[in-house]
Amino acid sequence: MRLHTHEWGTGDRIAVLVHGIMSDHRTWHRVAPVLAGKGYRVIGVDLRGHGASGRGEYSPETWADDLVETLPERPELVIGHSLGAMALAGAVERLAPARAVYCDPAWDIRRKLVEASAYFAVFKSANRAMVKSLNPRWDEADVDVELATLADWDPASARVLPGIYAVSRTPARPVVPSLVVLAGAGELVRPGLDEELVRRGFEVRTVEGAGHCVYRDDFDGFMGALDGWV
């Protein structure tokens, strides 16, 4: 599937941004302009089932294949958050970026969240008060974006998650130089995964105090964690 994309900047280096579940390219509204200011042409995608992209079969393989179908080969930088990190990990060997950054990746998540993931569809009808209560550190612009992206999200993409996480989705090794940015206060990633990732060859940095949506919870902390990678 050819995905909907949005671009920022006109630089000669390409950076790719891949959002998490329930979101779309608009979630990067603060990150993308900073990268564009550093000389990147930034491409934000809407994954299958999200934003303005099409709907269809949902699986790690289709999300990854869509990225390969849509994006140029050999970008300078790719950044994926949560579900987007899983999709990127499946596509990274074929995309062959110079560097990859995985933000609180949905590779091996806590069992209680796997069991609850089929019920993520309830967030489709979340109102402003609910979004703010769950994300007290977000500014109003990020709350606006969340409500807009939820409206354009297909909740069927969440119903497949329990089956997906019947096995770990953690890559055996980094195919390209890879940084994992973890949320210090996040509850997605299972305990001990950080140490396992280091053993497998990933560089791991943690933004202390930040929740799962690291770049919205602590924008400065997230950008600081990218030092040397952008």
From TrEMBL:
Keyword Ligase: no
Keywords: Hydrolase
Top-level taxon of the source organism: Bacteria
Pfam families: Abhydrolase_6 (PF12697)
One MF annotation (Gene Ontology) recorded for this entry: hydrolase activity
Record-annotated AB hydrolase-1 domain positions: 16-218
InterPro entries named among the record's database cross-references: AB_hydrolase_1, AB_hydrolase_fold
UniProt-recorded name of the protein: Alpha/beta fold hydrolase
Phylogenetic lineage: Bacteria, Bacillati, Actinomycetota, Actinomycetes, Kitasatosporales
